Every structure is written in C-alpha cells, then in structure tokens.
Amino acid sequence: ALIYDQVFQRFPDLMCGVIELGATWVPGFLRILDQGHTAFRKTEPLLQGLAARPSEIFRRHVRVSLFPYEDAGWLIQQAGEEIFMFASDFPHPEGGRDPIGRFDATLDASAIPASQRDRFYHGNFSELFRLEA
Question: Which residue from 110, 67, 70, 69 is spatially nearest to 89, judged by alpha carbons?
C-alpha cells in the first residue's frame, strides 16, 4: 500500500524497516509488485501515477533484516544490495551461535564484494535510520 498508494512518492524521505520477519520472501515479492503494476495500471489512476516501477520504489525506501539461517549472498544477488541489513538476536538461541560467521559464509559463497558487504552489515541500517556515514 505504501508503494501502490504513492505514500513513498509523496514523502520521498520516508523509510520503512521490516524487522524479524525474515527476508527470503523479498525476491518473489518484488516480482509480484511489478506484475500487479503491469496488470492493473491501465485502470488504476494511482498506479498510472507512479514515478518508477514498484520494485524500484521498494529498493529506495524499504530495508529488510535477515534471520541468521537465511542466505544473505543469494538474496543480495536476487534482489539487490540496497535492501538487506544485518540483524541478530545473539546470544539468544534464535540469534544463532555465530550469525556473522553464517552470513559471511553465504556472502563468500556468492562472491559478494566488500562494498556490498559493507551495505549489508551497516550501510543499509544507517540509511534506514539516517545516521551519518
């Protein structure tokens, strides 16, 4: 709704964080957003007025944290470096024993470069909360 109803378009500095919901759903959701836009924009004035594809708007305005068992490298490859951010409940059991090690292993397996790793570990969180670089 924030995308289709042009809320992000009217408030370009607004950001949204999706925390503790996981992230494996994101690549498919981006496709669904764009498919819905394509299917209904001819008859829906709000969709006609979008300044960009819904997936592009999502990438600019939404940041999503991962669970430690999710494949950060694959997600970045599939959906882009600007969406995902590190999170952990360590030392609680749901945070895993070594969340950084697990994420690093998936980033290594997907050959994610240092600049994209920096975005994952701190850059995207900093953007979400408007922290100084």
Answer: 67
CA distance 39 to 18: 26
**Nearest-angstrom CA–CA distance, 72 and 107:** 6
The structure tokens listed for 120 are 């994952």
Candidates 39, 36, 42; CA nearest to 4 is 36
- The answer to whether residues 46 and 85 touch, using CB atoms and an 8 Å cutoff, is no
Q: DSSP string covering 108-131, please?
A: HHTT--HHHHHIIIIIHHHHHTT-
The beta strands (E) that lie in the chain are given as 16-18, 62-65, 84-85
CB atoms under 10 Å from CB of 81, counted, come to 19
Residue pair 66/23 in contact (Cβ under 8 Å)? The answer is yes
Place of tokens 């980033």: 107
**What tens digit of pLDDT does each residue of 107-119 get?**
999 999 999 999 9
Residue 74 DSSP SS3: helix
In whole angstroms, what is the distance from residue 11 CA to residue 112 CA? 32
Whole-model pTM?
0.93
